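[recover] target loaded
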């Protein structure tokens, strides 16, 4: 397939897309769907003519040069993120595997925990070497073992259902209760069922009686209710309640995604 044919197909695919923009930049990853690294490699794979692509999350951004569906190299990084500065201005090459490792470390270190990633496409900047140099994005998918099946997450349903889908990878067990009845469960839920029966339901009834906003959305961390170090979090939204068992390290992401979905 020629570059012109591929370009025509890409342009046709853009017609009718429902892109979301934030401050003039296009959102390519939201709440981890698709994964930031997958989303960025897709953008590089769609770049035929040489361009400077600026990927951003919050106050952090990475600018790189892409052409011919290849990642050629990085030109600047701003904001937080730990990386080897020797990669800036250096052409990415298969013949120099250390550049591939450095590139992966840069993108992963900056964006792995990002809840939202945006992209801007800018005119190209001078960069070393020929425009044919660099590594194809499709090859980087294989080299870095980036899964293509994480490209989409079904974000339909109630807010709690969207919340559960977004965080599914980090949840070891889950009870979803609607109007007092369990409508879905995953994992080993025996401990969660006991917490629901012995503590959570009574707690919610007491909290609702005291609260001036009994129907407000809530995220409540239940510390030390398990016999091991497993974290337990309670999510409430209208008649929907979810009781989750998870790695305590996931709590920060649960808070971020809860704010994004419910606020």
């Amino acid at each position: 397939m020629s570059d012109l044919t591929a370009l025509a197909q890409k342009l046709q695919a853009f017609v009718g897309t429902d892109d979301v923009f934030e401050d003039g930049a296009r959102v390519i990853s939201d709440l981890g769907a698709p994964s930031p690294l997958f989303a960025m490699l897709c953008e590089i794979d769609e770049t035929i003519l040489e361009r400077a692509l600026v990927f951003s999350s919050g106050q952090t951004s990475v600018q790189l040069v892409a052409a011919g569906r290849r990642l050629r190299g990085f030109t600047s990084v701003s904001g937080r993120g730990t990386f080897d500065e020797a990669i800036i201005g250096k052409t990415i090459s298969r013949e120099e595997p250390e550049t591939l490792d450095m590139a992966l470390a840069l993108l992963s270190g900056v964006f792995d925990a990002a809840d939202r990633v945006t992209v801007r496409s800018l005119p190209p900047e001078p960069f070393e070497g020929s425009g044919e140099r660099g590594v194809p994005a499709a090859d980087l998918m294989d080299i870095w073992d980036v899964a293509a099946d994480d490209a989409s997450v079904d974000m339909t349903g109630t807010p709690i259902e969207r919340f559960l889908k977004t965080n599914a990878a980090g949840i070891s067990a889950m009870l979803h209760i609607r109007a007092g009845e369990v409508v879905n469960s995953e994992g080993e839920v025996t401990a969660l069922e006991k917490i629901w029966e012995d503590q959570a339901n009574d707690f919610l009834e007491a909290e609702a009686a005291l609260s001036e906003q009994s129907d407000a959305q809530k995220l409540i961390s239940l510390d030390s209710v398990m016999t091991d170090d497993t974290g337990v979090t309670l999510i409430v939204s209208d008649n929907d309640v979810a009781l989750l068992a998870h790695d305590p390290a996931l709590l920060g992401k649960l808070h971020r995604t809860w704010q994004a979905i419910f606020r």
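[recover] notes: Helices lie at 3-14, 36-45, 97-111, 137-143, 159-166, 190-210, 251-262.
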